[in-house]
Give the backbone structure.
Amino acid sequence: MKREDMADLTMFLAVAEEASFTAAAKKLGISQSALSHTVRRLETRLGLRLLTRTTRSVAPTEAGERLLDTLRPALEEIDQRLASLTQLRERPAGTVRITTSEHAAETILWPAIDRFARAYPDINIELNVESGLTDIVAGRFDAGVRLGEALAKDMIAVRIGPQVRMIAVGAPGYFTAYGMPATPQDLAQHRCINLRMTSAGGIYAWEFEKDGRELRMKVDGQLVLDRVPLILKAAVAEHGIAFVMEDRATEELRSGSLVRVLEDWCPPFDGYHLYYPSRRLVSPAFRLFIEALRYRQA
C-alpha cells in the first residue's frame, strides 16, 4: 500500500465517523474542499462510491460499510502497537480513552483520575460521557464503564466500584397528600418523575426486585427530566416520586426533605465495571489505568 493510500483511508474514516465533511475537516485540521477531493480520489481509484452525500448528511454506502469494517480493526491495531512502544520510555506515556455514564464519571472515575494524573503526568486521559451504551470498538475507545449487569458477554470486565442501589423517594408533603405506595404496582396511582436517557432518547423503566421476582415498570407523571439533580429538586418540591441512585439523594435523605418508599423492592446490585474487548492488546498506559481503578474491597 502506498503512503498516500493510508492517508486517504484515514480521511475517509474520519468523514464516515463524523457523518460530515465539515466536522471531519475541522477534526483533521484541513479544508473541506481538500477533504472532499481526497475522498473522491479514493473512490475513483477503487472504482466504487463509498459515501452517499445529501445536503443534510453523509452516510457510507454498502461498499463504504465493508471498507469501514476492514479499516477500523486494522487502524485500532496500529494504534495499539504504537502505544505499546511507550514501554520503551523511562516514564509510562500514552492516551487512554474511556466512555462512561455521568454518575460513574463523577463518583468512581474522577477520584481515581485525579490521583492517576498526578502519578503519571505523561499519560493523557480522555472521558466521553454518555447515558446510553456506546460501541467502544467503533468509537475507538480503550474501554467503557457501565454497571455490571449491562455488559456484553464477549468483554473482559474489571470491577471498579462497590454494589449500588436504586431507591424510590418522595417528599413527606407529597406522601401526606397522596399516601405511600406499598408495592411497585401502586405507582400507577401516583405521580412519578421520569428520566429521559439523553443518548438513547427513551424513558428509563423503573426496575424492582423482591424474593427473586423482577419488575420493570413504565410509570407516568407530569414531569420528564434528563438530569438527576433536577429530578431530586422536583421530588423535594412535591411534584412526585423519583427513582435515583442512592448516593445521589444522600443529602436530601439526611435532611428529611425526601424519604424512601418501596425499600424492600430495591436491593443492591453489581456496581460499575470497566470493560474492553477480549482481543484487545493492552498498552502499558491502559494496564496502569486498569490497576488504578480496580476495586479492592476493604
User: Anything to note?
Assistant: The chain has a mean pLDDT of 87. DSSP finds nine helices and 14 strands in the chain.
